[in-house]
Every structure is written in structure tokens, then in C-alpha cells.
Amino acid sequence: MKRFKKLILFSLVIFTPLTLTTPKANASSFGAQIFCTMRDGGNDHESSWDAAYTYIKKQKGGLFKVSPKNAAAQITETVIREKEKFSYCVEYLDNLHPNRKLMRDLEKEKNRKEKEAQDRENKRIKLEKELEETNKEISEEFTDETFDRYSY
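RE: above sequence
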């Protein structure tokens, strides 16, 4: 029974902070407001995104943090849901969701280059082994007697 009470107390200590976090809607709404206000004020995408994403991450709380992709989706959802409030911000949303096809193509190209480099390394290792084997065969074939220049 004592063990059971400790388990319940431990559970409350762990899970109570998770339930007392700021609601996701408030965090994403203010994150969208940060992003849109900074962009409208003339800031570049990176600084606006960093500020909004940092705020959303901090407000989420809990064991797991919000991924960048999820935070971008939250900002987009808020801007679309509250069109009247964020009408000036719609033009900036495309920067939150980069060209996925381009990203996939770049990833494929990177993987292809890594594979080519690995293939070249494997070929080099194979050639070195063949050269070692050939040198070994040659050295076994010619003994010291063969190279004695004074033996006739």
C-alpha cells in the first residue's frame, strides 16, 4: 500500500506540470502574431521565424517540444483561421513551407554523391589489396638467390 501511494504521488508530480501548460491555440496565435508583425515591420524571414518558433516552443511545455514543421503549420492555420486579423500576412506564408520537391531533389543528390564517394573508396581499397597480393606473389617468386648478381 505504501508503494502504491508513492507511485500515485510520483505520477502527480510528473504529470501535473504537463496539464498546466498554455493552450496550443494561444501559443500558436501569438506565434503567428509575432511572425506576421515582424515580417510586416520589414524583418527578414529567418529572424521572424526564429522569434515565432522560439516563443511557440517555450509556450508548449511538456516533455516534447514542437517541431519546426508543426510550428509552421500552427502559424499557417492561425493566419488562415483569423483572415481578418492577419490579412497582411498571407503573402509571407510560402516561406514557412519550403519547396518540398526541391528539398527531396537536394537530398537525393546528396545521397548520390555520398554513394559515389563510398564506391570510389571501395574501389581504392580493392585495388590496394590486389596490388598487395601481386607484390606478395612477385616477392615469393623471386628469392634472394635470384637477385644475387655474382652468381653465374
